[in-house]
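Worked example

This section walks through a single chain of length 155. The input is the sequence exactly as stored; nothing has been trimmed or padded.
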Amino acid sequence: MREQHGAVVLPVPTTRVWKFVTEVRCWPAWLQPVSTVRALTLPKTAAGMRFEVVRSRQPTVETWIVAEWDAPSHVRFTEYRQNIQLAFAVLPAGPEAELRVRLAYPKPRGLLSSLTARLTVGGGWAKGLEASCTPLHAIFVANHDLFLLHNLDGA
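Given that input, the structure is written out below as tokens.
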């Protein structure tokens, strides 16, 4: 298996990060290359939930399942047909939260398979993983500013 890793420190508590990143309907707002998500089973993310993902510039629909659920710190999603795994770990970092993301996908066999995998399976997700941290950070900073502006944080 090949693996890609990413991490970002977000200026909000771990519970808010957990709620946001495990809400698969929010993935298109920050997780590249995801363009749409549709739940197939439970409306709430939990172990065993199945959902469909369509990636940008990919004609196929991927079926994912929540394979591991250890709220509020670890979740692993799996797409069985292509054997892709996406895991989130949310860790406390003082008053902030650190989100660690791990993407694992099979090593391609042969020259043509290697090229195809770079363009589709691993390549699209890996490039998207790197690019996802910036919008995620921006979402939480903007959301935090709105809470402060409207005094919604309970202070």
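What to look for: The chain has four helices and seven strands.
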